[in-house]
Amino acid sequence: MDTIFALSSGSLPSGVAVVRISGPRTRFVVETFCREVPKPRRASLRKLWSSSGMLMDEGLVLWFPGPKSFTGEDCCEFQVHGGRAVVSALLEELSAFDGLRLAEPGEFSRRAFENGRLDLTEIEGLSDLIQAQTETQRRQALAQASGGLRKQLEEWRSRLVRMRALLEADFDFADEEDVPGSVADGVWEDARKLARELGAALDDSRRGEIIRDGYQIVILGPPNAGKSSLINALARRDIAIVTPEEGTTRDLLEVQLDIDGFAVTVVDTAGLRETDGIVEREGIRRARERASMADLVVYLEPVEGMMAGIDTDLQGFANVKVLRFKSKDDAGLSGDNGISVNRENGLEPLLNSIIASLAEIGDLAVPAVVTRERHRVAIAKCRDYCVKAADAQKLGSELRSEMLRLACDEIGKVTGRVDVDDLLDVIFSEFCIGK
Fold first, then answer.
1. How far apart are CA 171 and CA 128, in angstroms?
2. Do 258 and 327 share a domain, yes or no?
3. Higher pLDDT, 175 or 258
């Protein structure tokens, strides 16, 4: 197996740069650079020498002999000065060693998974933690990276294994006269109970996915209702063109915001109206399509120049929460239902309503079980197999036991125990080089 290396810290120049190494030749590299191997898992100040005897830098060296390392292999980190020339010299020297090569994106984490140091949910949590931009994303990702989801999944899986073991015992000792009744009498009620727990985890209004992917807000309304002015005010910069001409916005415009610790995507859209223009009509179609998939629709109705057909505009969004506001309320005559980008604190009614909607996502102190669509699909299948096994009285115990095995496999797909080879390249490609 190759020994891999990479710059694991941020872009250069920086105060400190971290170069990470993992693999069978790590110890040889450490001996070459440091002229001795430091004590394991202790930061040691060392001069770093090239194979030709040139001093490259002086920095901290951390030596992690396997299997007690992040990857499960021999690992080392060199913490050196973050100048481009220093790091370039170090990486060039590493590339000259036989059996060493630059790591691919996510390869350190992939080796940790393959060596059993982390399961797939912890790997995904680590990826989310690296990419987290808000406090709620950080907390959820940290809980998952620390094994929160793995522990819950393993608890469900152990219960399924016990159910199957009881059924196997029932098969093996069915003819024994001293075995009172069936040892599997309680299995099917246990399966129903587990199915209910799985269903409760799924019935969470997509809390985990919303925190991870962001809360989607789409702004709708007639032309010149102030949609583009609103998104510019929320972003505090010019995102959309604002003119008195109707139909200025034709395509979807997005801005990423942090509202009350949540990642929120706000989408500006084309004004809703009847039109013969091909481009504008396509923009309106896209607006309605995006709104139908939103977590929240904000519909703006201008205080003056009200248009007929507003209720028609909102048709088709029965499953989407809609907030209606009077826009351009510069005089503040509409109370809590009026907003204005020109009035001091003129957006407070809208922001307070958005924060209240975010609070409805659920108890953030309890980590979400489902944070990705693949989790939701597998857990739903597990639940369905449990229900089928419990309710299929007409089938033999052997077939019902097979359904429990399939339920167990679905849990294994989430943790990475079974049938995930096709997912690995996708998951690890999300990482940066050096992680």
1. 45
2. yes
3. 258
